[in-house]
Design brief:
InterPro entries: Glutaredoxin (IPR002109), GRX_PICOT-like (IPR033658), Monothiol_GRX-rel (IPR004480), Thioredoxin-like_sf (IPR036249). The protein has helices at 4-16, 22-25, 41-46, 49-52, 105-108, 137-147, 165-183, 223-233, 250-262, 280-288, 306-314, 319-322; strands at residues 96-97, 117-122, 128-134, 154-159, 236-240, 267-270, 295-298, 301-304. By secondary structure, it is an alpha+beta fold. A 4-stranded antiparallel sheet has the order 1-4-2-3, with helices on both faces. Strands 6-5-7-8 form a 4-stranded mixed sheet. Helix 1 (4-16) packs antiparallel against helix 7 (165-183) and helix 9 (250-262) runs parallel beside helix 11. The protein is elongated and about 70 Å long. Mean pLDDT is 80; it is low at 18-28, 34-45 and 49-82.
Length: 325
């Protein structure tokens, strides 16, 4: 029976043999590839029953056959790797604390560059949980903080700006080998079948603003006053038809897509919701002196309807107004 270290070494070697699959699958897919080595048909027929099934175990959940058109896997050391001058040992990299009580996570993460590299995530006992590759390390770590805060307390990073996919894979392999040599096992997050580190949790959509509570008693409220209050209170307000998850016209969909792409916080109001926003659609048209929906307000100022806002987006005028450096 193979030792834990031998099994782990086989895991690393088999993953390395699939570096060519990365362009089609993505760098992380290499860590959950399922290809088995398949001997030539003549060799299989000549072998006995036991040898015919003597293949390496599957690495993780199925993701399909190799895109290279073959299912043969060679247990070899990856030929392409990052330069030794660039790839520093895992243990030599400083530990960046992300959930230190003295520094909030959003400030701590500023120590990490949003560039290609490899990174290792540790829990509150400084036990390695996951070793990853990313084209934008800081963004990946922010995602881990949001989805797995209980396991993401610290990290080590080796930034490799300009590294190729093969170089990133080589750097990741070196860190994995170092970790396995030190602990005798694969990090929990890199175990076959483990997906929580590579699958984002879907966040619930932010609800629309409702100008009234929808009761009969609220129907007497002055809608113009309510509209003025909401655009004065919130930096970005989109008046649309439908909701942000279910827009009811293509123009509303296009406007939502623009602001979603900016990855900013913004508010939406469904002018078709007559229960909570009675009369808002017609009052808004009068207030803005604009006949169509959607309408966009930024910092209390009316920007325009769909065509104007889309043009502002295309010429680069809109983004600086809402995305702050």
């Amino acid at each position: 029976m193979l030792s834990v270290t031998q099994n782990a070494s086989n895991y690393i070697a088999c993953v390395s043999s699939h570096a060519k699959c990365v362009p089609a699958r993505g760098t992380r897919a290499v860590m959950r590839h399922t290809c088995r080595p398949v001997p030539h048909r003549a060799a299989r027929l000549a072998a006995g029953p036991a040898e015919r099934h003597n293949t390496l175990p599957r690495l993780a959940l199925p993701v399909g056959n190799c895109p290279t058109g073959t299912r043969r896997a060679r247990v070899v050391v990856a030929s392409a790797s990052a330069s030794p001058a660039d790839v520093e040992p895992l243990s030599s990299r400083p530990l960046v604390l992300l959930q230190d009580t003295a520094v909030p996570p959003e400030e701590a993460i500023k120590q990490v560059q949003d560039v290609p590299g490899v990174y290792a995530v540790y829990d509150d006992e400084e036990t390695l949980q996951y070793c990853g590759i990313s084209r934008k390390v800081a963004s990946s770590v922010v995602a881990h903080l949001e989805d797995l805060p209980e396991l993401t307390h610290a990290l080590r990073v080796n930034a490799l700006p300009g590294a190729t996919r093969e170089q990133l894979q080589g750097a990741w392999k070196a860190w994995m080998q170092e970790s396995i040599s030190a602990t005798g096992r694969v990090p929990p997050g890199n175990e076959p079948g483990e997906r929580k580190w590579i699958t984002r949790k879907k966040k619930p959509a932010k609800p629309e603003i409702e100008l009234t509570d929808g009761t009969d008693a609220s129907k007497g409220q002055n809608m113009e006053t309510l509209l003025k209050e909401v655009v004065a209170k919130h930096p970005v307000v989109l008046f649309i038809k439908g909701s942000r998850t279910n827009p009811e016209c293509s123009f509303s969909y296009n406007i939502l897509s623009i602001f979603e792409g900016y990855k900013i916080d913004y508010e939406t109001i469904n002018v078709m919701d007559e229960r909570h926003n009675p009369g808002a659609r017609e009052v808004l048209k009068t207030l803005s002196d604009w006949p169509t929906i959607p309408q966009v307000y930024i910092n209390g100022e009316f920007m325009g309807g769909a065509e104007i806002v889309e043009e502002m987006h295309r010429n680069g005028e809109l983004k600086p107004m809402v995305v702050k450096d």
